[in-house]
Amino acid sequence: MTVKAGIVAIDGQAAAGKTAVGRELARRLGCPFLDTGIMYRAITWLALRESVRIDDASGLGKLACGCSMRLTDAEGGAILLNDIQLGPELRSAQVDEHVSLVARVTGVRRALVRQQRDIATQSAQDLGGIVMVGRDIGTVVLPDADLKVFMVAAPEVRARRRYDELVSQGQGADYQQILANAQARDKIDSERDDSPLAQASEALVIDTSDLTIDQVVERVLEGFASGKSGAGL
Ligand code: DC
């Protein structure tokens, strides 16, 4: 199926397959991909390194406003933060454990949302669109997106995918711990006051539990081609 690029917002729970699908979708549409989770992870990494306390909202907000961030990898897996190249460390257990708490902070969100909107505007002008992935993209960051997708999957499936990913990278992994962490993060992300994880009313809802990445991508492209949102394909 040939579809012209545009602005696609993908939101959903942790490890629902958003990144893998978003990357492949961007490749097929010929437009950039941005995983906004990596930006929250970068601020969390910096806060841990600079010993800014996770309950110090003002300190975290200042950190987010004062840092420069440049995405250095078209696949969306790396970032240049204040001239420090970050990649796999953004997915460490320590960052996993704290990132939802950092992402609750309004000052952090404001600074990052501003950057995300700038990136989307630039990409739309220069390259015809962008695929942006996160928790609040369709609801807050890009409410005028051409297509909004909300991805869900059973918690056990999401934990298994993350476990397999870590093992394939040669990293140690504990399935039960991953499951507990994903559920804890979903709870914090869904219950926070500022832009919680929520489905945009017109979003195309896809349960990815029993689907391959390609099958999900096809469904999104079908939704895109038919200009459809909100039907729950
Ligand atoms: O998608 P991820 O697991 O890399 O996201 C890391 C954290 O950042 C997760 O707790 C949710 C938060 N996040 C957010 O609040 N808003 C976004 N647009 C992206 C991620």
Tell me what the structure shows.
- The protein is of the alpha/beta class.
- The chain is 50% helix and 14% strand.
- The chain is built from nine helices and eight strands.
- The strands form two sheets. The protein has a five-stranded parallel beta sheet.
- Strand 3 and strand 4 (79-81) form a beta hairpin.
- Helix 1 crosses helix 9, helix 4 runs parallel beside helix 8 and helix 7 packs across helix 8.
- The longest helix has 22 residues, at 106-127.
- The mean pLDDT is 90.
- The structure holds 2'-deoxycytidine-5'-monophosphate (DC).
- 2'-deoxycytidine-5'-monophosphate binds at residues 14, 36-37, 40-41, 99-100, 103, 134-137, 185, 189.
Write a short abstract of this structure:
The protein has 233 residues and is an alpha/beta fold. The protein contains nine helices and eight strands. The model has no long low-confidence stretch (mean pLDDT 90).
